[in-house]
């Protein structure tokens, strides 16, 4: 348990740093902004208490906000994802797996289910994020395009990293 | 009362979710107040230090480009100096006037963080209130206008770049002095819109757009960009003008902060007019 705790703390910092120092500098036509830090929320164990899940999501989001000068936007999107995560987890995995208290990673869920889990989560998180950022439905199609393209890239990066970690 | 507590306790997950979302939304909305919530902001020391460390690393990869740019700026300044000296020789009685001290001072600073791909882009500099930087000072680079400072901490400062839809810069077309407002279109990091130019004047592709000097933030005549496209929307009296920005925000490294020593005096004078 203690070992796992340390692992998650390290993961938190690594993901935030990778996000703000590397991925935020990807400048590709202004439409592609991948946000992979939510991998932290995705990989938290199934049995984590609700208040902990929401609290951690909020802290993660606000950390990204501080670096990005976007108060509240990432926090809001992360908290939404944290809130919906139990429902998404139920959708993609069996009851036994959730009660066993494992972490929802690729080996536990199987690649097909993990891909489904990632795709749904990223789409929800990014949808909230990009419309909250635009703060209007003015450039609706522009924002829609930004949402779809960025989601595709986030999903590729998240799944790629997981395939590398769990390739054996 | 007890059943209320029991209800809250049973549904604490939903309640906590709603509370955290409410906090997030209030942060988002307070962002509209321009002066943003003090701690959620990259001018704070921890974030500033981290960005600065990383930018040191990044510097080595752009050394040659930065050198070339500085050399070009040096050459252009030397040319202007030559022109001044020539004038001085022609009109030797032209003594410097001590009453007319220059209104604008420039302080160099380094960009340690900058984004171009958001709807509201911010820029972080490595100088702060200890170096005399204050909110409402302009930021320019060798190529043109960059943005305006909004928040300062002792060692760092952040500002809106032109690539932020909340910033509007008073601009004019250099050749005929018609002025309008320059606002970012939110799409590309190298174009912005020039608004409020009436359609009876003649505009050409390639015309230079510079700051108008009406804002006390920027001196007059700082380069903004060149007109790349224009048309008249039916039913309006104004042009739709697209401006190619001269500053390349993707490779921005060194900037100058503009201090207007007479800004306070000017502001006081201008607020006197409001009541009349």
Give the secondary structure arrangement, pairings included.
The complex is a heterodimer of chains A (168) and B (276).
Chain A: H1 2-22, H2 39-43, H3 50-68, H4 73-92, H5 95-99, H6 106-109, H7 111-134, H8 140-165
Chain B: H1 2-10, H2 12-30, H3 45-59, H4 63-90, E1 104-114, E2 120-125, E3 138-140, E4 145-152, E5 157-164, E6 168-173, E7 179-184, E8 191-195, E9 208-211, E10 223-232, E11 239-245, E12 254-260, H5 263-272
Antiparallel strand pairs in B: 1-2, 1-12, 2-5, 3-4, 3-12, 4-5, 6-7, 6-9, 7-8, 8-11, 9-10, 10-11
The largest sheet of chain B, given as strand count, sense and whether it forms a barrel, is:
6 strands, antiparallel, barrel
So how many helices of chain A? Answer: 8
Q: In one word, what is the shape of chain A?
A: globular
Quote the CATH topology of the largest domain in chain B: Thrombin, subunit H
Mean pLDDT of chain A: 85
CATH level-4 homologous superfamily of the largest domain in chain B = Rod shape-determining protein MreC, domain 1
Q: What's the CATH architecture of the largest domain in chain B? A: Beta Barrel
N/C terminus separation of chain B: 57 Å
How far from one another are the termini of chain A? Answer: 24 Å
What is the 3D shape of chain B?
A: globular
Secondary-structure class of chain A: mainly alpha
* Strand percentage of chain A: under 5%
Task: Describe this structure as you would to a colleague.
The complex is a heterodimer of chains A (168) and B (276). Chain A is mostly helical. Chain A has helices at residues 2-22, 39-43, 50-68, 73-92, 95-99, 106-109, 111-134, 140-165. Chain A has one domain (2-165). The radius of gyration of chain A is 15 Å and the shape is globular. The relative contact order of chain A is 0.13. Chain B has 276 residues and is α+β, with helices and mostly antiparallel strands. Chain B has two domains: 2-33; 36-259, Rod shape-determining protein MreC, domain 1 (Thrombin, subunit H, Beta Barrel), CATH 2.40.10.340. Helices cover 29% and strands 29% of the residues of chain B. Chain B is built from five helices and twelve strands. Chain B is globular and about 90 Å long. The termini of chain B are far apart. The mean pLDDT of chain B is 83. The interface between A and B is large, with 39 and 41 residues.
């Amino acid at each position: 348990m203690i070992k796992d705790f340390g692992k998650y703390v390290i993961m938190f910092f690594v993901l935030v740093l990778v996000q703000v120092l590397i991925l935020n500098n990807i400048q590709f036509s202004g439409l592609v902004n991948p946000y992979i830090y939510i991998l932290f929320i995705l990989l938290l164990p199934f049995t984590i208490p609700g208040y902990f899940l929401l609290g951690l999501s909020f802290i993660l989001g606000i950390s990204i906000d501080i670096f990005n000068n976007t108060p509240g936007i990432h926090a809001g999107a992360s908290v939404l994802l944290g809130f919906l995560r139990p429902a998404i987890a139920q959708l993609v995995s069996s009851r036994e797996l959730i009660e066993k208290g494992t972490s929802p990673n690729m080996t536990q869920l199987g690649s097909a289910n993990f891909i489904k889990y990632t795709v749904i989560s990223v789409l929800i998180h990014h949808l909230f994020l990009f419309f909250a950022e635009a703060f209007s439905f003015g450039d609706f199609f522009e924002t829609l395009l930004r949402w779809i393209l960025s989601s595709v890239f986030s999903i590729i990066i998240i799944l790629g990293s997981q395939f590398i970690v769990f390739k054996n | 009362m007890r059943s209320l507590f029991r209800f809250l306790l049973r549904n604490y997950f939903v309640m906590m979710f709603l509370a955290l979302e409410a906090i997030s939304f209030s942060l988002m909305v307070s962002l509209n107040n321009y002066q943003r919530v003090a701690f959620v902001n990259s001018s704070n020391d921890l974030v500033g230090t981290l960005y600065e460390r990383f930018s040191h690393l990044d510097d080595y990869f752009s050394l040659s480009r930065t050198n070339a740019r500085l050399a070009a700026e040096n050459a252009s300044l030397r040319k202007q100096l030559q022109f001044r000296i020539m004038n001085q020789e022609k009109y030797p009685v032209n003594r410097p006037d001590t009453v007319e001290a220059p209104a604008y001072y420039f302080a160099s600073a380094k960009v340690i963080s900058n984004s171009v791909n958001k709807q509201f882009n911010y820029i972080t500099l490595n100088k702060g209130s200890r170096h005399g930087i204050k909110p409402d000072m302009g930021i320019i680079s060798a190529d043109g206008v960059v943005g305006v400072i909004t928040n300062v901490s002792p060692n760092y400062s952040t500002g809106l770049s032109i690539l932020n839809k909340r910033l509007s810069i008073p601009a004019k077309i250099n050749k005929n002095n018609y002025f309008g407002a320059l606002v970012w279109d939110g799409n590309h990091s190298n174009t912005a819109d020039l608004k409020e130019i009436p359609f009876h004047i003649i505009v050409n592709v390639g015309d230079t757009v510079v700051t108008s000097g009406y804002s006390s933030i920027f001196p007059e005549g700082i380069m903004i960009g060149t007109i790349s496209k224009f048309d008249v929307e039916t039913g309006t009296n104004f042009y739709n003008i697209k401006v190619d920005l001269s500053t390349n925000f993707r490779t921005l490294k060194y900037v100058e902060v503009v201090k207007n020593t007479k800004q306070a005096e000017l502001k006081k004078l201008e607020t006197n007019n409001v009541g009349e």
